[in-house]
């Protein structure tokens, strides 16, 4: 099974309490593609500028990613700059967003891409996300969507329309509240599900993720780490674990969604251990499985047997 992804391919300049990097490989679709390529075939739709390094295209290819939909246009590659502070790595400040070649991009899907069974609309202009969805020949098995404040503030109408057409929505905590215009997270998620999606995944950084799936709520913790180098891309890498699991197994049951959320958390935890894509580029399936198992130990406890009382007696 394969996943089609549209999103940003970028050069990021990032400062964290650990270090800083200028013009490192970034972008929502790049993080997603590299991480999801561990589980399934990935086909990438995006645009790059004249300054995009050929070696980065070769890197994507070396992970088996179909880059036939990666177009090079005159102009500069999308650029993003952000900073994280030691007081709260969950709160980041966007210093700069330059759409560059994305401002004029018009995606064209091949016949094969139009039939992809899984579609991930990674964080990018919701009008581009809609454009890609409209080109699909048949509705994919699963349409998942990510977005962020930049688009909630700038393109709410287009975002509303794409949310109405998605099955799963990923957003961080503040974005969920802003998008739903509701401060209570449970009510916010319900309000979003009433628009169309059957599931909302609220990413909460170092506090893990909460999956709202119909009436059920599941909480996946973040893997406890003693060092976080760079939180950038954790959300896209989370989505790669989530969608990658469903695309690889076809499992859309409530239990499958829970496992997908745990695999998302596993992948996000690897991403933040180094800058840019550095950690996820070398990740093996054995390392992923080991950490998945560690989550079982992290979250399991002896529940209350049927009929027993908590304090005995
Ligand atoms: P995440 O940390 O998972 O939210 O994703 C960070 C990535 O999103 C970075 O590599 C950026 O290049 C990319 N990004 C930041 N702002 C935008 C935006 N407005 N549209 C699309 N991608 C963005």
Notes on the structure:
The protein is of the alpha/beta class and 313 residues long. It has one domain: 3-Layer(aba) Sandwich (UDP-N-acetylmuramoyl-L-alanine:D-glutamate ligase), CATH 3.40.1190.20. Helices cover 37% and strands 26% of the residues. It is built from eleven helices and 13 strands. The chain has helices spanning 28-36, 54-62, 126-135, 149-154, 156-164, 173-180, 185-195, 234-249, 254-271, 278-281, 285-299; strands at residues 2-6, 10-15, 20-26, 41-48, 66-72, 78-85, 88-98, 118-121, 142-146, 168-172, 199-203, 209-213, 216-220. The strands form two sheets. The chain has a nine-stranded mixed β-sheet with strand order 5-4-1-8-9-10-11-12-13, sandwiched between helices. Strands 3-2-6-7 form a four-stranded mixed β-sheet. Strand 8 (118-121), helix 3 and strand 9 form a beta-alpha-beta unit. Helix 3 runs parallel beside helix 5 and helix 8 (234-249) runs antiparallel to helix 9. The radius of gyration is 19 Å and the shape is globular. The chain starts with a strand and ends in a 14-residue tail after the last helix. It binds adenosine monophosphate. The site of adenosine monophosphate has 17 residues, from strand 2 and helix 8.
């Amino acid at each position: 099974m394969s996943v089609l992804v549209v999103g940003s391919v970028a050069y990021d300049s990032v400062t964290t309490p650990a270090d800083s990097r200028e013009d490192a490989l970034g972008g929502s679709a790049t993080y997603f593609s590299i991480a999801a390529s561990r589980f399934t075939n990935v086909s990438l739709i995006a645009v790059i500028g004249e300054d995009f390094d050929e070696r980065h295209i070769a890197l994507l290819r070396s992970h088996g990613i179909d880059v036939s939909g990666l177009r090079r246009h005159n102009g500069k590659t999308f650029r993003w700059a952000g900073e994280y502070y030691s007081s709260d790595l969950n709160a980041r400040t966007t210093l700069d967003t330059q759409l560059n070649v994305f401002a004029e991009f018009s995606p064209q899907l091949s016949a094969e891409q139009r039939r992809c069974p899984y579609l991930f609309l990674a964080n990018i202009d919701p009008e581009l996300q809609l454009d890609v969805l409209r080109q699909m020949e048949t509705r994919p098995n699963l349409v998942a969507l990510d977005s962020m404040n930049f688009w909630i503030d700038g393109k709410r109408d287009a975002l509303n329309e794409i949310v109405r057409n998605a099955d799963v929505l990923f957003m961080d905590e503040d974005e969920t509240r802003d998008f739903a215009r509701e401060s209570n997270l449970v009510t916010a998620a319900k309000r979003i599900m009433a628009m169309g999606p059957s599931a909302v995944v609220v990413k909460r950084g170092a506090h893990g993720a909460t999956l709202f799936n119909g009436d059920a709520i599941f909480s996946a913790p973040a893997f406890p780490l003693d060092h976080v180098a760079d939180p950038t891309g954790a959300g896209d890498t989370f989505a790669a674990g989530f969608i990658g699991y469903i695309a690889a197994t076809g499992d859309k049951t409530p239990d499958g969604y829970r496992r997908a959320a745990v695999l998302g958390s596993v992948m996000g935890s690897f991403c933040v251990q180094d800058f840019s894509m550095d950690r996820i580029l070398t990740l093996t399936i054995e390392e992923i499985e080991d950490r998945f198992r560690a989550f079982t130990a992290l979250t399991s406890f002896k529940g209350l047997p049927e009929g027993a009382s908590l304090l005995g007696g």
